Amino acid sequence: MTLYSFSHRRCGDSHDMRMASLKSHRHIKQRGSVLIMALISLLILMLASVALISSTDTSLLTAGNLAFKRDLANQAERAVAQVRSQFVSGALVSETVLYNDQAAQNYWAHVLPSTKLPGIPDVLTASAKKDDITDTATGIRLRYVIDRMCISGTVPDKATCTMGSFVDDKGGTGGSTKVSAGLGPVYRLTIMALGPRNTQTFTQITFTH
Description:
By secondary structure, the protein is an alpha+beta fold. Helices cover about 45% and strands about 20% of the residues.
């Protein structure tokens, strides 16, 4: 009986040891699984942070470029004012002068070819084209050309030119203004504005004179 009882206790101890060993292995596996999940979660958070930073930088860059383009579009008004003064009281005020090219005034009496950019005269983007207006404080440069919507540089008529109506408020006597309507060729003003960060915008205006 004594031997049997002793043998039974040894079997019980062995069983307890196996159970303890299994529990220990189970705890180790559980800790390993938790560690792997924690590392995966950390990696996901890191990737999300990098994506968020990249998205923020892209948004700021896009917003900055849009602001530059809006400023360039506003600066183009300076070229419009300069061209208007040429037609009202400057070198292009005479109607007969407009029958021929006036390169010094950036004026062409016929439609300029546009082979590089749709609707943009090639002469405007040529490397030989000089800046017409420069703002040294902001680094903004403006270039412009004026072309008449005619097939050739001749006296304008409906057969060779695109015509449009206009209102002339010049003239009159005794301080009064004489207003008259007429039909004249259409002129196209194309402005290229160059700014910081290689920002570039184009503005086009058509008018009659």
